[in-house]
Write a structure and sequence with these properties.
The protein is 8% helix and 54% strand. It has three helices and 21 strands. The chain has helices at 3-21, 23-31, 89-94; strands at 34-47, 53-66, 73-83, 103-115, 118-125, 143-151, 157-168, 185-186, 188-191, 195-199, 204-211, 217-231, 236-253, 256-269, 278-288, 291-300, 332-344, 347-358, 370-380, 388-398, 404-414. It has an 18-stranded antiparallel β-barrel.
């Protein structure tokens, strides 16, 4: 289904109806819409040991426009451009999966209807749930094409349901393309545990329920179904299902704020039993003034990997490094210690240590234990430079065949 059929036909019907009521009001809604924008520069230097080391600088511009409400309807548009003007041939090939993809794309184009605390959307849109979530850490922000309904009318409860038939990748390196360009909306999907190994077939369905009726307790349950999915070569794998149940409880202890959590996730692929595994996780976190600390632990099935959901931000497991993420593979436990300190509202420093513990059937790091180290620092300017922000991310994954080292610098200006 194309975006024209999905979003613009609905917009036309709505527009014809409201024009008969008041064209001036529609004109006012368009004139009083809000524009936002962003300039983004990302510099990467990645050493993948035997696979080589390359650096790249990519630049992006984003423009976002949302109309003012008109009879509870709003139209939203978000366009993004990307370019890497100084990239060499080697750098283009090295970063074709995530940062080298010149061109422009309409990330969002949706019609939204809101009544009370219930929102319906049709078209290209950002989605953020545990099992279905787009990532915006590169130039292009992952997006989804489909229909969603988000209900928050019930006390301390959220209900979300959605149908998706296309997924926006960061770059258009899939489908055997020989010349990478900016991301495109395709049926290919990213799932931790199998990366871009599957296509969504007849679409993707999901339902989410969250409840916080009990003070301090947050319950989350989500189910996701890829109907009649295929592999990249179009070989049928049948339905893919992923389910997550999670409970988190916050309570004070003296001057500390404490959170404890437990989660269980499972996946099933009809014709790929190797991906029909599960994961159990535990978490404890605390906050004292500006210091936050957390410890997470997850353990996987002994004989099967699992897939986490769809989208690069569908990483819901309590433990794992930030970039590499080996935590959804069989017979692999992960333990992560996080420390975060906010020197001020606009200054943050975070460190994470992750220990992957490989069992006898684990394929992670050749079946050997693995350590990963992350360090992130961010600074947001104030005063005359308000809107300008910087972030630096260092990660070292100490693999037996050679450490994988990432240096990442982000500079953004939002207006």
């Amino acid at each position: 289904m194309t975006i024209a059929k999905l979003g613009l036909s609905s917009l036309l019907v709505a527009t014809l109806g409201v024009n008969a009521i008041s064209a001036d009001s529609l004109s006012s809604a368009l004139k009083n819409g809000k524009f936002k924008g962003e300039f983004k520069a990302i510099g990467y230097d990645v050493d993948k040991a035997a696979k080589g080391q390359e650096s790249i600088v990519s630049l992006g511009v984003m423009l976002n426009y949302v109309t003012a409400p008109f009879y509870n309807f709003q139209l939203g548009l978000r366009a993004r451009s990307s370019n890497s003007p100084w990239a060499t041939s080697a750098e283009k090939k090295f970063y074709k999966n995530d940062l080298y993809g010149p061109g422009a794309v309409l990330e969002e184009a949706y019609l939204k209807y809101k009544i009370h605390k219930t929102t319906l959307k049709a078209g290209r849109q950002y989605i953020k749930t545990p099992l279905l979530a787009g990532n915006g850490s590169r130039i292009v922000h992952e997006s989804f094409q489909g229909y969603t309904v988000d209900v928050k009318d019930l006390p301390k409860t959220r209900l979300f349901a959605g149908y998706v038939n296309r997924y926006l990748t960061r770059t258009d390196f899939l489908e055997g393309n020989t010349k990478t360009s900016i991301g495109n909306f395709r049926k290919n999907v990213f799932m931790y545990g199998n990366k871009y190994g599957y296509k969504m077939g007849d679409g993707l369905w999901t339902i989410l329920a969250q409840n916080q009726s009990v003070k301090g307790l947050k319950l989350t349950g989500q189910y996701l179904l890829l109907k009649n999915a295929t592999k990249k070569n179009d070989a049928a794998v049948g339905d893919i299902t992923v389910a997550l149940a999670q409970a988190e409880y916050k309570f004070p202890v003296g001057g500390l704020k404490v959170l404890t959590g437990i989660q269980y996730g499972t996946s099933h692929v009809d014709k790929d039993n190797s991906k029909s595994g599960d994961l159990l996780g535990f978490k404890v976190a605390t906050k004292y003034k500006r210091l936050m600390a957390s410890l997470g632990y997850v353990t996987d099935s002994d004989d099967k990997d699992m897939v986490s959901g769809v989208g690069i931000s569908s990483n819901w497991a309590y433990a794992g490094d930030i970039i590499g993420l080996e935590n959804y593979y069989k017979d692999t436990d992960a333990l992560s210690l996080n420390l975060k300190y906010k020197f001020a509202k606009n200054i943050m420093l975070m460190g994470r240590y992750t220990d992957y513990i490989a069992g006898s059937t684990s394929l992670v790091n050749g079946g050997n234990d693995l350590n990963a180290y992350d360090l992130i620092a961010s600074y947001g300017f104030q005063g005359a430079l308000k809107g300008l922000g910087t972030k630096f991310h260092y990660e070292n994954v100490d693999k037996d065949k050679g450490a994988i080292v990432n240096y990442r610098l982000y500079i953004t200006y939002k207006f």
